[in-house]
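Hello, quick one for you while I still have it in my head. No rush at all, and the record is pasted right below.
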Amino acid sequence: MQLPPGFHTSSPNLVCRLKKSLYGLKQAGRQWYAKLSNFLLSHNYKISTTAHSLFLKDDGKHTTTLLVYVDDIILAGNNPMEISGITCLLHNFFHIRNLGDLTYF
């Protein structure tokens, strides 16, 4: 890594610290969606053809739906084991919090 133009120092081995996080950038939402969708696709979810924020997993007997709204996720399905499994995987990968049952949408 090179120091930015105009920045001069006597120590060449300095580490630069970012003052602006990823969330301050315009691409943050796109990057979050890309990372989440790649994660879900690798766990056998499919993107809905009608809504790109809706992910579906159907094994013929059980269906799980995952809806992404900005940075919130609504998870529903008829297989409690799949729901708890994907919740655990999401927590391990993204450090999410479970806010409980949905009361308003």
